[in-house]
Amino acid sequence: MIEAIFKYEFLQNAFLTGAIIGIIAPLLGVYIVVRRLSLIADALSHVTLAGIAASLLLEKRLLLTTGLNPIYLGMTFSVVGSLFIEKLRSVYKHYQELAIPIILSSGIGLGVIFISLADGFNTDLYSYLFGSVSAVSRTDLIIIIIISVIVVAFITLLYKELFLLSFDEEHAKASGIAVKSLHFFFIVLVALVIAASMRIVGILLVSSLMTLPVAASIRIAKGFKQTILLSTIFGEVSVLGGLTISYYLNLAPGGTIVVIAVLILILVILLKKMFQWKHEVRV
């Protein structure tokens, strides 16, 4: 396996991209879960699907995007979708959660229309839906590196503000934090990470990588920072383990990554219950 990675560029791209995604997706996922916005990743992934399908349709029918990476239009749709979510959250002040299903439904609807206009699924679209090791290009790697640097810098520099915003938005406003601007940049970063992660995990499964490692870490973490640390560890194990298994067994990497993340979650829950049972017996 190691020899193959050094030999083939597409494997280098896939594993380096996966290693980065395994860190930044759960990193943002912690804040998403804490703020009870878990479904936002699903909504933006479906909007991204619409952008990818639109790009493939334009390339097939009008030859307008020949040679252009579909990820660019996918990112554009994802960012625009995130901005619409923010706008709808301000429109429905007392029912802010409505913004997510509205955008999710819109993404699915547009995606289905574009796919049908493009005469159904093709190999390229299938790889975007479920992930593909061979589809990750050097350009995809460069894009995810740039996004990851921005994400890590954003989280590091604004850690206290994001922490306060996640747990007590009203107090954050009273403290003078620019809540709207902060949430705006955060949601745009989430949109970019989702769009950039689709090559490895797949559009339909990328939200799982943002939530499953966090769900596992919450069960055993003793603080917020420990939750972040464990989430990134679980995410990294899921991605690298999934890519390795999918390479040897010729499986879709996205599904393999998610299954490993689910197994980690189940294992953590079982170990937690076993520990609690032993503690109760001793008492």
From TrEMBL:
The lineage of its organism: Bacteria, Bacillati, Bacillota, Bacilli, Bacillales. It is a multi-pass membrane protein. It holds the Pfam family ABC-3. It comes from the Bacteria. Its main location: membrane. Belongs to the ABC-3 integral membrane protein family. This is Metal ABC transporter permease. It is found in: Cell membrane; Membrane. The chain crosses the membrane at residues 14-34, 70-86, 98-121, 141-165, 228-249, 255-275. The keyword ATP-binding does not apply. Keywords: Membrane, Transmembrane, Transmembrane helix, Transport. It comes from Robertmurraya beringensis.
